[in-house]
Write a structure and sequence with these properties.
two-stranded antiparallel sheet; transmembrane; transmembrane helix; membrane; ABC-type transporter activity; 14 helices; mainly alpha; Excinuclease ABC subunit B; 72% helix
C-alpha cells in the first residue's frame, strides 16, 4: 500500500498544477476560522459577531464546520480527475503497466491517494473545529465536547465517496473537463428523476428513493445546519425540528457507492485497450 501511495504522491508533487490545487484545498478550511471571527456592522446600529451567537458551541460546531468544509472538496476533485487525465495524455499509464504495475495496483494507487488526502482533510477540519470550539464554546465538559464527532466520520466517508465518483468519471472519459461536466450532469439527472417520481408517485417515497442516489446520499451524510441553529434560538418552534443526525445506514449507502465506483474503474481499465 505504501509503495503505491508513494508512487502516486510523487506524480502529484511533480505536477505544479496539482501542487497548487492540493495546497488550496488544504488552505480553504482555515476560512472557517475567519468566519468565526467575522464581525458584521448592521447599518451602524450594532455589530453582529458570529462567534458570540453560540453557533460555535460544542457539539454543534462539528456539524457546522464539516458541512461548510465539505464544499471545498471540489478543488481536490479537480486533482483527482486531472491525475487520471494526465495518465492518458502523458502516456504514463501505459508506461506504468509496462514497468510491472498491474491494472489492479494502478486503480488501488489512486484509491489509496484519495483515502490519504481524505484522512488528512478530516484531521485538519477536526483540529480547526476543536480549537474554535475551545475558544468560543461555553461548554467545557468532555462529554459535550466530543459528542457528535460522528460528523467527522461522515465527512471522511463523504470525501472518499465523492472522490471515488470523480475517479470513475475520470476513467470513463479520460479528460478532466468532461469528467467534471459529468458530475454536473449527474446532479441534474438525479433531481430530474426525483421530480418525475414526486410527480408520478408519492413525494415521500420519491424522497426516500432520492436519498439512495450517489450525490444525494453523499449530501445526506451531513445535512444543512441552518435549521438546527434556528432551533437553538427558537426552541418552541416545533416546525423547525428535523433529523440532522448522521446514521449508520447512510454511511453504508455511500460506502457501497464507493466500492462500486472503484470496481467499475477497475473494470473499465481492465477491458480497455491501452
Amino acid at each position: 500500500m505504501l509503495r503505491l501511495l508513494n508512487l502516486e504522491l510523487q506524480k502529484l508533487l511533480l505536477n505544479r498544477t496539482s501542487k497548487i490545487l492540493i495546497f488550496v484545498s488544504f488552505i480553504l478550511p482555515f476560512f472557517v476560522i475567519l468566519l468565526s471571527s467575522l464581525k458584521i456592522n448592521v447599518f451602524g446600529f450594532f455589530t453582529l459577531e458570529l462567534g458570540e451567537l453560540g453557533i460555535f458551541n460544542f457539539p454543534i460546531i462539528w456539524h457546522l464546520t464539516t458541512f461548510f468544509a465539505s464544499y471545498f472538496k471540489l478543488f481536490f476533485a479537480i486533482v483527482v480527475v486531472s491525475m487520471i487525465g494526465n495518465e492518458y495524455s502523458n502516456k504514463t499509464i501505459k508506461q506504468n503497466l509496462i514497468d510491472g504495475l498491474s491494472k489492479k495496483e494502478f486503480i488501488l494507487s489512486k484509491f489509496y491517494t484519495i483515502t490519504f488526502f481524505s484522512l488528512l482533510s478530516t484531521i485538519l477540519i477536526s483540529l480547526i473545529s476543536f480549537f474554535i470550539g475551545l475558544y468560543y464554546s461555553s461548554y467545557t465538559e468532555a462529554s459535550i465536547i466530543f459528542r457528535e464527532t460522528e460528523f467527522l466520520l461522515a465527512y471522511f466517508v463523504k470525501l472518499i465517496g465523492f472522490f471515488s465518483l470523480c475517479l470513475f468519471f475520470g476513467m470513463l472519459v479520460k479528460r478532466s473537463a468532461f469528467a467534471l461536466a459529468f458530475l454536473f450532469i449527474l446532479y441534474i439527472f438525479e433531481w430530474i428523476l426525483y421530480g418525475l417520481m414526486a410527480w408520478k408517485l408519492d413525494i415521500n417515497l420519491a424522497e426516500k428513493v432520492h436519498n439512495f442516489f450517489p450525490l444525494q446520499s453523499m449530501y445526506k451524510l451531513i445535512d444543512q445546519p441552518f435549521q438546527r441553529i434556528a432551533m437553538t434560538k427558537f426552541p418552541n418552534k416545533e416546525n423547525l425540528a428535523y433529523d440532522y443526525g448522521t446514521h449508520g445506514y447512510e454511511i453504508i449507502i455511500v460506502l457501497s457507492w464507493t466500492a462500486l465506483f472503484v470496481f467499475l474503474s477497475y473494470r473499465l481499465l481492465k477491458k480497455r485497450d491501452l
